Amino acid sequence: MVTFSRREIYKLKKKIEMAGNHLCSVVYGSLPPETRTKQATMFNDEASDLNVLVASDAIGMGLNLNISRIIFSTLKKFDGICTRELTVPEIKQIAGRAGRYGSKFPVGEVTCLDAEDLPLLHSSLKSPSPIIERAGLFPTFDLLSVYSRLHGTDFLHPILERFLDKAKLSPDYFIADCEDMLKVAAIVDELPLALHDKYVFCQSPVDVRDDISTQGLTQKIMQRKAQFGLKKYLHLEHCGCLQHTINSRSLNRFTRS
To answer: Which PANTHER family does the UniProt entry name for this protein (predicted)?
Structure first.
């Protein structure tokens, strides 16, 4: 069962399990990678009672799953800016998780919970995938380091802003969205860190809309700095913990070494 918000995932899970016939695994993007893998493993295990997976589009991102049927609860998602219909590639990527060569189910099925969504599903599956004409590029540390030397500053936020403003690319490329990176850069610029360490932390999976997460990032950086010095910072790139509520998830995200 596929839906596109954490709240809806747990709502569907509860509804399915209350019917009494099935138990559910859950997978969504903000779960730590090891937790997603564990949930997927339990779903794949024939001896497990967890025979339904309720998930976001994270199921299309690097998980090996034995799925016989995909059911879209909706074909709309909030993309951080607005609620929109799924694109053809998004629908195909998710639908393609049902029935895969080499899996337990070589042939799969896909449908929608709401009959009104079926025309869009059918037309998307029949449509050719659009040709990707441009590729997104992300600013590397080497490029930002050059900017740092040119402008005589180790503050990452203004360096990144200048780079994004001045960078010129061929028509085949575009600069990837760096909005979250800019927000984290503004946070780490207030800490006594070298430029490279700031850049590393800007790659961390921090929810910049969550005050608890951003405060946790700052606290964890200073704890590691006091305990190990700068050389250990790379180990924090994928910190995270499984949550049971929204707040405990935010609080626990930075408690692991």
So the answer is: ATP-DEPENDENT RNA AND DNA HELICASE (PTHR12131), ATP-DEPENDENT RNA HELICASE SUPV3L1, MITOCHONDRIAL-RELATED (PTHR12131:SF1)
